[in-house]
Amino acid sequence: MQEWYRSRALYEAVQKLVESGRIDEALEMAEGIPDGNIRSKAFSHIAVEVAKSGRDYHEALERAVKAALDIDNRDESTKALMSLAFEFLNMGNPEEALRISRYITDLPNKSKVEAEVALVLAKSGKVSEAMEIINGIMDDDVKTWAMSRLASQL
Questions:
Q1: How far apart are CA 140 and CA 44, in angstroms?
Q2: Which residues are CB-neighbours of 34 under 8 A, at least 6 positions away?
Q3: Contact 47/63 with Cβ under 8 angstroms?
Q4: What is the value of pTM for the model shown?
Q5: What pLDDT, on a 0 to 100 scale, did the predictor assign at position 1?
Q6: Cα torsion at 16, 20, 25, 26 (round to 10°)?
Q7: DSSP character for 35?
């Protein structure tokens, strides 16, 4: 329990550092968060906020992905990666969301991210790129759903 409280306190400090633009300090502090889930959340927060600010977010993103992959519980790791991918997708960066999805080992959840990326690309007029992604989706149920959604969007 002590570890969780310490982790939460450090996470809140990371948030404040990010808000004040002290990204390097935030990254360093996030490394010291003992709870893997909260550490992953901290790195994801840093990466998303740096990306939103228009600065180079690649180092922060790599650390966020690594922190998510380091979570012992596979379900929690998958959730962290999906959340990160959807954050980038919602920021208008489907390419980065697709790249993050490649780290997801759970096939149905990886497929869901790929499908959402494809639908966003199709909405922006990149239908052939969207079709290529949909055709590569390994989960048949998700692939069928994505095809149906794509057809209704056109």
A1: 30
A2: 3, 6, 7
A3: yes
A4: 0.93
A5: 77
A6: 40
A7: S
